[in-house]
Amino acid sequence: MANHLFLPLISPMLASALALLFARDKTRMVARVIVLASIIFNLIYSIWLLWVVGNEGIQVTQGAGWEAPFGVTLVADGASALMLCVATLLMLVTVSYSFASLDPGYENFFYYPLLLLLLLGVSGAFLTGDIFNLYVWFEILLLASFGLMTLGGSRPQLEGGLKYVVLNLFGSTAFLVACGLIYGTVGSLNMAHVAERMSSVTNPGIVTVIACLFFFAYGGKAAILPLFFWLPTSYHTPPVAVTAIFSGLLTKVGAYSLYRVLGLVLQDELIRLAPFVLAVAGLTMVVGVFGAMAQMNVRRILSFHIISQIGYSLMGLGLASAIGLAAGLLFTAHVMIVKTALFFIGGAAEQVYGTGDLKKMGGIARREPLLSIFWFLGILSLAGIPPMSGFFGKLALLQAGINQGALLISVVAAFTGILTFFSMLKIWNEVFWKKSYGDMSKLPRVTPGLLWPGAILVIISFALGIGAGGLVDYSQMAGAQLFDRAAYISSVCGSNGCEAVVDLALR
Amino acid sequence: MIFLLSIAIGSLFAGAIFLMLRRSVIKLILGLILLAHGAHLLMFTMGDGGVRRGAPPIVDYETGAVAPGTADPLVQALILTAIVISFGITAFIIALAYRATQAVKSDDLDDMATTDRL
Amino acid sequence: MSKTVNYDSIVLRTVSRLMMPLLLLLSVFMLIRGHNLPGGGFIGGLVASSAIIMQMIAFGPTYARDVIRVNYLTLASIGILIAVVWSMPALFFGMPFMAAFWMSAPIPGVGTMGTPVAFDVGVFLTVIAVTTKIALLLSEEPDLFPLDMEDDEEPEAGAPRV
Fold it and tell me: Which residues cross the membrane (chain B) (predicted)?
């Protein structure tokens, strides 16, 4: 029993209630201190958890002490610990960027409580061991994100927010239907128990239906090919800090849930559906990057790149092996960091000009050399050029793809990398390198508070590239844990499996 | 009973999809509400042993014994949770749609496409 | 209000005035009995907020705000704090989060008390606050969705602010 697994959920819940109490002009500093304290606590905890899981294996706890298939189960394996750590790190950086960039109106409304609720939902989704609880955590993080998306209430935000809310709600309903079907089919919602009972389902058709429903529901949230339209229409409307944290967390929670539910619980079905998943992955990569090429706005280009990167995460899933999942996890962790960094740096440039339109910007390289250097390193990492972390993420994916004979998707992935670099160079040319048309001297300078959040994340990406060995080893351990159903079941329900626990309770 | 329920679920889903394909924002929201109802009813039919009448899942106060053939309480708990969540989200989305139609001065989704253009 | 609404149904007014204390008492009763019998913080909270919402329908939202003068957001956050804090003691004794502690003997007339009761009180307060807040916001039409900040408002938004 690892009861400490509840701590990363208690801390943001308490802090968001307290931050709501202090969300006033006079006590704003108190609210900031509470928020920072809670997130720093979570970060320290998640780094410690990373270490514990690496040394001692999967950590499990049961809410209120109810045994596994009956109660609320929290499970931390390598994948959840890794994702939790990266997500908390991003949240810390986002909060410090918000201190520098947001106007007080936001801070006096529900901005910090909503951010903490987002962190709560994301942490819960990473840690839970129950499919219905996953749904509830999803709804918590979605409600928080709805609030963050529309906070401010300008017309583009309301228009983009409406589409975002409607399409995500549609996906949630599909998720709910899939939960219902899975309960009707196997009579349990605990992931370990479902995985155990899945092998004895007599009607294979219903399992395919459930797997496809989950693929649709999580795929909609992760913005895979036919379901991504909500993303580019809404992501550039809220403040930069909100877009950045959304790009780092929301779609990746969808990807993580695909890994967890399809990769672990419905593993046999995933192996059957693998060619389909790979096809969707390849198309998502290509369509995302081509969409980015057509855009002329910094944040819209970056939004389309989110879609393209999700294709890579999906490729790891579609390889349907421990190595593939490990490579996908490695890539997802890397892209969370780099993508958020690029949004911060692009957003800082955007705040200097007051617009994100490429045609109206220019000449930042001379005026803000530091910002430009970090941007360039960031796009090197996103495109996958050594020694940045992106290189190892893509290398692992390509290696896994070629080892398993999935040559077509590997070629597409490599090709998309080149296109990504090309499309990011467009921003480099237009925003940073070309001469400015207007008079630059009157524009405000980038303050250190706007610069360092992005810079730190780029430095972390660089450090992960230099010390890639540790991260690669960890992700391989996590991938192996994620794909090993028997070990998961025995660590959640004990060595005899969940069925034995149920029999004992019924007797 | 299960036959009637499946017809109800099917018509709820069909009506929801029909409403969601309309251009009006308010019909879109009505469609989402119907869709949520359909999903809740679907969960309801998924209980252990299907739908049972007249056997509430209440444990005997003195002995703690469960009468044989009682309805499955878990689906009811799941539906309650889902209803509360969809209530909250529906309240939010109605307010959001209200503000959006005020800002755009139109109820037509085709007029809400300014963020889609290049 | 953009248009005048008549809140003058004498039957509704009388009944809601009489029902208000009854409903509030019933909600507390529901809260306390809800541990081994049907009821609980959630249901009690809904009953209490329905009492306030009934005032709102009979007399209008301004009156309903005056009847119980609390800041509902503060109430909600206090409720969450109570709920979380009272599910934590188990953690300090090496037990899982939310594991219950009960008093050994029941208090006469009230029943056995324990940490889940305190947790339920938090749920009770939160449910009252959130449900009433949503209902009040939706009925106070001009102030609906007060996310619009003064310095952020666009001229074309044209939201009528009364």
Answer: 6-21, 28-47, 77-98
